[in-house]
Structures are given as C-alpha cells and as structure tokens.
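retry 2 of 3: previous attempt timed out while embedding fructose -6-phosphate. Reduced batch size to 1 and resubmitted. Inputs unchanged:
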Amino acid sequence: MCGIVAYVGSKEASPILLHGLKRLEYRGYDSAGIAVLNDQVNVLKKKGKVDELKKLTQKLKPTGTLGIGHTRWATHGAPSDVNAHPHTSTDGKIALVHNGIFENCDTLRSALQKLGHTFRSETDTEVLAHLIQEYKSRYNVPLEESVRLALEKVVGAYAIVVMDQDEPNKLIAARKASPLVIGLGKNEFYVASDATPLVEHTREVVYLQDEEIAVLEPGQKLSIKTFRNEPQKPAIVELDMEIEELEKGGFPHFMLKEIHQQPDTIADCMRGRLNAKEVWTRLGGMETYRERMMNANRLIITGCGTSWHAGLIGEYLIEDLARIPVEVEYASELRYRNPVINSGDVVIALSQSGETADTLAALQHVKEKGALIYGIVNAVGSSIARITDAGSYIHAGPEIGVASTKAFTAQLTLLSLMAITLGKANNTLHPEYYKELVKELGEIPNKVRNILAKDETIKQIAASIKDASNALYLGRGYNFPVALEGALKLKEISYIHAEGYPAAEMKHGPIALIDENMPVIVLATNLSAYDKIVSNVQEVKARKGMVISVVTEGDKRIKQLSDYTIEIPRTIEPLTPLLSVIPLQLLSYHVAVMRDCNVDQPRNLAKSVTVE
Ligand code: F6R
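retry 2 succeeded.
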C-alpha cells in the first residue's frame, strides 16, 4: 500500500526513482510523484500510473543526484495531482514521501495554520512537511533533529523519507510500523518500502527497525538512531532475491506467471521439510514450540482476505489430522472485539506481505495477552515475521500480482506440513495414513502441473461466464474455503459479484438467486459427501442455473449433469484444496482478461494493506 523509493549519490536520481516506482507500482497506483534536488526542490507529480509521471519527466527533464519518489494508494484525499506525494513545506524547501497514516493530522493542521503555514493538499502527509519546517526554523537544528521532534508529535503508523534544500547532500528516513529498507552502494544510498527496487543496485541492505531514524549522506557511514536519540549499529544483511523473480518471464501478466509457478513454489515450500522416500516431515520453526502447540487451549489462526481463507483450510487440516482445537478469526475482528486470550493460546498468523496492518495490530494485542505467536509469512524480515515468537517462511518468492495465488498454495502447503507433523507427534494419525499423506503431499507439484496443462480448456469455459453479473461458488468440507477463495479471486480482478457458500447452505437462501443467468461453480471432488453434492448440482440444474463443476478425473455422474467440467487429478481429501483452487485461479484470470480488466493491478486494491 503505497511505495517509497529514494536515492542519494552521484548518479542522476530521476531514472532511478522512476524505475523503482515502476517496480513498486503493485503496492499502489492512483498517483505518483518525485522530488529531485538541483539548487531547489523540484517536484513533479501526476494522477494515474507511473507511466503518466514518466511522460511528465520526459518533458521537464529534472536533474539532480538526490531525490525521493512515491506511488500512492489514497487514504486521505482523493487521487489527484495535488494530493500525490511528495509534499512540501510552506517555504517549499522540505519535501517528503510517506506510507501509512497520521491519525492526529487534523489537530496538527489547525495548529500549524494558526502559525501561518499554508496547505495545498488534503493529505495527512503534508502536515509533517510543515511541522518539520516549524521545528527547523524554531530551533535551528539539523534536519534529522527537526524530523525527530516532528515525529514526537504525530500519532500513527508511517515510513517516511525527507529531503531539505538547505542540506543538499542528505536524506532522512524514519519508520514506525511501516517497512523501510536502506540499500548501501559505494558512496550512495537507496531507500525503498520493500526490497524490490533495490535488488538491481545493491545486495547489501539494512532493514530499518521501528522508531528508528537514519541519516544517509554519501561519503559518510550510515547513521541510525532511535526516536530517543540512542545510536544503533546498522545490521547489514544480504538480499536473497533475483531480478528475474521481479520480471514477467514471458507471461502477459504477473498473475498468470505466478499461477504457473505453483508447482515450483509448492516444492520450494516443502524443501527440507518433507522427504517422501524416507517418509518424514519436520518444521524447523515449530520444533521448540511443538509441545506448547499440542497442549494449547486452542490454536487461533488469524489473517485477512486470501490468507484468512488459507487459515480456514488450516483449521480443517489441524482439527482433522492432529485433533487440536482451532479457531479462525479475521485479524480485524480479533483485534477489536475484546476476545478471551491468554498464555495457554497459540496464535498462528498468516500473511503473504508480512505488513498487513490489521494482522499486525491483532498480533500486538494478543502478544500483550501472553499468547505465543507463530508466523506463516512470505516476505522475509517483514514486520509480522519480526513480531512473532517463532514461525516458518512459505518461500513462495515475491508475489507481484495483487491477487494472491502462489502465496495461497504455499500457505496451504505449510499448513498441511504443520497438521501432518503435529498429527504424528500427537499420535492421531495411523502410521499408514501418515505415510500416505507424506507421499501424496510430495506428489502435489506434479498434479498441479497436470491441471495447469488444461489452461486452454479453462480459458474456453471462462468465455461462457465473462458477461455474467453474478456467480456462485459452492463447496463442502475442505472445498468450502476454496469456494470462498474462488469467489474472491473472481470479484477482485474481474469485478463480477461472486459469493462462496458451503454447498448445503444453498437451500437456506442463495437458491433464490438461481436462474439461467447465474453461473454456479461447484467443487465436486469430495468422496465423503459425493451423493450430497450430486443433489446440490441437481438442485441448480432444476432451476436452469449453469453449472461449471470441478471433479476428480474419471467422474461420470457430475460431469453428465454439468454444462462444463474441469477434471483434476485424484488426491486424498485433506490435500484437495491444493488442487481444486488452481482451476478457479485460471478461470478468474481469463474472465478478467476477456473483460479487459487490469489483472495485476485491479481498481481500488493494493498488494500490501498497511492501513487498518
Ligand atoms: C486477495 C489478496 C488479499 C490479501 C490480504 C492479506 O487476493 O491478496 O485478500 O490476502 O490483503 O494480505 P497478506 O497475506 O499480505 O497479509
């Protein structure tokens, strides 16, 4: 949600900033801007995508070797040229970019207006630029000190980068609950809200910690202090990311590339954690805490959106295989409904980005209550990864498409490993069943490959629903959360209204919606409730609904009843979601392309939701 990039060194800043913003556009894309220093602060900003800003820079050709840039996802004030970042102080000398929210901006704005500051935008960000100018002129201190004093007055979550015309060789970066990474070059520094724009410039990075301020001056060592002015030793780490991972690799969209990466990402998630030949599973991150998890009052799985759907499948898996009680809760609800949580509970947090504000806030809350927190996260070194007591990375690699696909199946892989490992430790799995689960999980990447080979057939089926206004997704048992996920994928990228339901719930209400205009996508792979699913399909057909079914290879009965069928390989029921979600991802993708939607950057959405 919003992207920051900044540079100070001896190279021209604007190409670096624009290229970096392009890499970060998946985080926010309603407006973009840069400020470059060349005697004066030169600000260029534009509503729309980074390409619009690029056109402006091609015309105005800003020069300078120090600059800051931002791509925005609006919170305060509509997307517009004027509300785009960077924002400047009244005298125009200080410019800054900001991710996050200043909650007390209205109070501060009124106080600053009384002191003679004039505001140009409706944003919370602009307030900080004026406040820094206020402290600079009042106390005549270096930029880092006026930034520190100003930050003492703001309430909220933020990552900021600040430049000042009067200190032309210096950038100041600071963060509180919003990520910021500093790249170290030779006599130069880069800053970004995540590592993606840095990887092509340097491998050496420092993740700024909460409540830290960094001073970046070429020729000087990186200097970091806390908000209380205590010096900190920068912890330099090596970036483990390849540029190719950030490119589309011949696919028309990141989403399609990421869907097709799944055989590899699922295998990567299992590497070193499962051995099908020797029949074992282990999760290094869980070893120290396994007993505590097995003896917990309950496990509480939390997350948002697609991660929450993965959590629901985690509940089915862990209760089914390890017989440990599990609850799943939206992070935003867990945080604010005053739940009963204590040190006997274990909270499992699921997050692709590791920066989702709702999830982070819930974890801060449960930490105060004494619960153990276990993280299942994709982004290495992210805020959620850092707040947890223990955890496992899912190793899906950078996910750029806003709609989560490969992170979801990697989350499911990890949760399957967790449930199987806990089940073995808890003696709730018969050794033969354990063996079958381990072997079958090892086979999943090949089976996903098999489904991906049906892409063309799925594309043809997509044509049959591309003009629909609504769609219904039905599934039972393990396939119910998959139905929710299928519906979410369709609505977020194609803007078709879609709902997921447990198949048996249809007759309690949604059946009223079914007529010839309602496509119904039925996940019909379960063997345990097969006859009941046959009845559900018959109920839809009796009301002239169009049925697209996802069935197990060789199925005849449901195939006969359906208008279209997608066959997936047979697997054991707890592992079904890893396969049944794949055709739903492809279906949504093709429908969205046929409707001419921006698949990778759907309207109003951002990849990493860093506001509550
Ligand atoms: C949907 C999607 C979102 C995210 C949600 C949580 O495709 O991507 O629903 O799943 O915003 O994000 P993370 O997993 O980064 O915490």
